[in-house]
Amino acid sequence: MKYRRSGRLVDMTNYFLSHPHQQIPLTHFSEVYNSAKSSISEDLAIIKEVFEDRSVGTIETAAGASGGVTFIPTVDQENTGKLIDKLSERLEDPDRLLPGGYIYMMDVIGDPLLIQDLGRVFASRFRFAGVDAVMTMATKGIPLAYAVAGHLNVPVSIVRHEHRITEGSIVSINYVSGSKKRIQTMSLARRSLKPKSNVLIIDDFMKAGGTIRGMMDLVAEFQSTVAGVGVLTEAVHEEEKLVDKYVSLTKLSQMNEKSRTLKVERGTYFEAENLI
Amino acid sequence: MKYRRSGRLVDMTNYFLSHPHQQIPLTHFSEVYNSAKSSISEDLAIIKEVFEDRSVGTIETAAGASGGVTFIPTVDQENTGKLIDKLSERLEDPDRLLPGGYIYMMDVIGDPLLIQDLGRVFASRFRFAGVDAVMTMATKGIPLAYAVAGHLNVPVSIVRHEHRITEGSIVSINYVSGSKKRIQTMSLARRSLKPKSNVLIIDDFMKAGGTIRGMMDLVAEFQSTVAGVGVLTEAVHEEEKLVDKYVSLTKLSQMNEKSRTLKVERGTYFEAENLI
């Protein structure tokens, strides 16, 4: 294939966006396009500049024989702030209030392009964390977990409340649901997480943190480590949280079913120690 | 912002890829880049040519005052064939055999970038179907459904076996699981599908088709229509399928637990009447 610079820029941009966190040797591009490495290097400089300028990500270059270029998706703080403030405003609609201190979020979770953007925020936040796998709890954590995992280019492990016959041997643990103080079971197929993985736990909603705490214990059962914890929304909760360190994008700071008020603020993502 | 052509091509490529099936007025680009419409038109011609050449999609142009350009993700038959043949080979591993005529597929379903590619195949296949929403069954249909919906730029409705308290008013129906001949219940939050939608049903696995049949009935409960049915894998089944028209990517044509053999072929996607 022989493309001129203009064609190469379009094709390389698409290639990077669909191969995040993957080191690509320069020779790959020079062979595909039958072009000199010096031309490819100039193409890369253009792409890197636009990606950084537009808060899409960055292109990292590793020198040497085993070197190459890697696209790292990132979102800068300004764009993250805008995205989250817009989401918070949308979440403050009192029609979302449901019995039991829950809020209706399926319109947000059901929007694939919004979820892609939110996933990119977490992928950006945990880009240096050496994540090997993303873990989430069925059902509502799944869309966000896939968005994060796609941008980090790692597999997803789906934990379930029920035991399912269609996944072979499973590992189950008991955990205490923090808000309901009830013993529950969660399971993960043995084959669906490699031992010694570094696991990013992603979920849609956290109250006391019992489910997240359970997933952390499950990670340990697979001789693996927790790379971090990210939740879309955390709810006000009178007692101490069961999880110390987590990154939340939004926080339900007030919720009153009787007066039908709902207040949503920026989550712990925006606290100084979490900004990287 | 003032970009030269090279910068515009990178930025516009990213913009199109993240805004599929959305009509964008030419003035959007000429204003963002402070460029003449004639320059933008030349940029668009370059992007369209590369996208078509590389089986990424196409750019459609609508003329007139309300006109603009729309990126439609597509995958050509050659690339679809290669993707599906590679997947089929991977699925033929006898270690996947699980009791009860199931096969282990979480490694495939757990791979976000592969699922993105498979989702693009369905989005391409149903690109003219006027899809307003994608419906799927929790849990394992969710990743593929989101990938399809993302490429079609429509919301997702997640149907569940259980009733969940966190979604407000729900609509439930009974259905007969085709392979087990057992009456089961499926539910969908009333708010999660707009009436009069044209719904694409996506699932990971189909045996007799009872679950799909149930979702079709549920669609009708929402005064909506079925735009199509797509499944990743269909299994051999001795009796007649409960669904007449569906698009499957792969077909488990032989499966024998005792002799530990598994044969996977191309699905109905590749039949003449399904190729569009």
Automatic annotation (TrEMBL), chains A, B:
Ranges for domain Bacterial purine repressor N-terminal: 4-73
Domain of life: Bacteria
Pfam family, one: PuR_N
Domain Phosphoribosyltransferase span(s) in chain numbering: 114-253
PANTHER family: HYPOXANTHINE/GUANINE PHOSPHORIBOSYLTRANSFERASE, PUR OPERON REPRESSOR
Keyword Glycoprotein attributed: no
Alphabetized UniProt keyword annotations: DNA-binding, Transcription, Transcription regulation
Family affiliation: Belongs to the purine/pyrimidine phosphoribosyltransferase family. PurR subfamily.
CDD domains in alphabetical order: PRTases_typeI (cd06223)
Subunit structure: Homodimer.
Protein name as annotated: Pur operon repressor
Gene giving rise to this polypeptide: purR
Record-linked InterPro entries: PRTase-like, PRTase_dom, Pur/Pyrimidine_PRTase, PuR_N, PurR_Bsub, WH-like_DNA-bd_sf, WH_DNA-bd_sf
Bilayer-spanning residue ranges: none
